[in-house]
């Protein structure tokens, strides 16, 4: 496996892990009925997951 192939595989695994973490975060927030705090257009915004 070349260095480029290793980098591509690592990138894919990292992105898959981020997707999983996002899904778990949304699920957790829905279960606890709590707000998700994000920055949107430079402002702090609280969002209720539905």
Q: Could you give a short account of the major beta sheet?
A: 2 strands, antiparallel
Give the total of beta strands.
2
Q: Between the first and last Cα atoms, what is the distance in angstroms?
A: 44 Å
Total helical elements = 1
Report what the structure shows:
The protein is α+β, with helices and mostly antiparallel strands. Helices cover 60% and strands 20% of the residues. The chain is built from 1 helix and 2 strands. It has a two-stranded antiparallel sheet with strand order 1-2. The model has no long low-confidence stretch (mean pLDDT 94).
Short description:
The chain has 50 residues and is α+β, with helices and mostly antiparallel strands. It has one helix at 3-32, and strands at residues 36-40, 43-47.
């Amino acid at each position: 496996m070349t260095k480029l192939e290793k980098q591509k595989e690592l990138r894919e695994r990292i992105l898959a892990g981020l997707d999983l973490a996002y899904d778990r975060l949304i699920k957790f927030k829905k279960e606890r009925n709590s707000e998700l705090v994000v920055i949107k257009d430079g402002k702090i915004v609280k969002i209720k997951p539905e």
